[in-house]
Amino acid sequence: MINGERPPFSTVEVLYRSENFLVVNKPYDLVLNWDDPSRTDSLQHLLQERFPDLVDESLTHRFRFVHRLDYSTSGPVCIALNKQAAGHAGKAFSQKQVIKRYLALVRGHISENNLSIDKAIGEQGAPDAPVPMCVEGTPGCQQPRDAVTQLTVVEKGLYEGQPATKVQLCPVTGRRHQLRVHCHSIGHPIVGDYTYSCHQDTSPYRMMLHAQKLIIPLREEVIDIETNDPFVTNFDPQWQSTER
Question: What is the structure's pLDDT at 7?
Fold first, then answer.
């Protein structure tokens, strides 16, 4: 991707492949799968076209997605290629052995270099709420559950001429939209997050959240994936680093 232009979906990058697992680099603005089989705009459909030999017709979505990424988020997605592998990976996730690290550009300059964001997250129950999830204490927030994110400042700069900070985000828990909600809750929403900016942040070509690193420490094989940083000036000249 150069100057904010996305490569065709058909160029989905394979990051890792073995007898048990396939890891691909999911593009931004692409859903993993649809319940409607006629929809072809999904990662599932791309995988079906590229790897017809890996399709399991007995599965509703044809592949065993070990975990999920939001529609707007890019980065590694792991697919188990058999039932046993799916079970091992699922156990690693449930026992919180998996390490996930994300990169994001957020609005404003964060003064602290390291933050632990410990705010429970629940569903927004207000019928006219512009966002689906919220932190505990927000009017209308229902059934909040513990949520913790570790934030580390990588560098500060400007995006579209406005202050922005590149951060590394490590979710300790796995709530829906956790990183987006937590960043918004501290007054530094993710650049291009249409939903949690109440539909105001529309000029960026994408939401600036990327799952950079994924480690699944299985006994049989260790999946250790680290992808390139997509938030660099060569890719998107709207981002300009001013300090590290």
Answer: 53
In the predicted model, residues of the chain with pLDDT beneath 70 are: 1-11, 244
User: 9-234 belongs to which CATH class?
Assistant: alpha beta
Those residues whose C-beta lies under 8 Å from the C-beta of residue 208, and which sit 6 or more positions away, are: 104, 105, 106, 159, 190, 191, 192, 231
For 95-219, where are the alpha helices, taking DSSP H only?
Answer: 178-185
With beta carbons less than 8 A apart as the criterion, state whether 211 and 74 touch.
yes
Q: Which residues are catalytic?
A: 70
CB 29, CB 72: distance < 8 Å: yes
Domain boundaries, given as residue ranges, for the chain: 9-234
Q: Is 162 exposed, middle or buried (0-12, 13-18, 19+ CB in 10 A)?
A: exposed
Q: How far apart are CA 149 and CA 118, in angstroms?
A: 7
Reduce the DSSP state of residue 41 to 3 states and report it. coil
Residue 180 CB partners (closer than 8 Å, separation 6+)? 70, 133, 189, 190, 193, 195, 196, 209
| Closest to 219 measured CA to CA, from 93, 88, 95 | 88
pLDDT at 36: 84
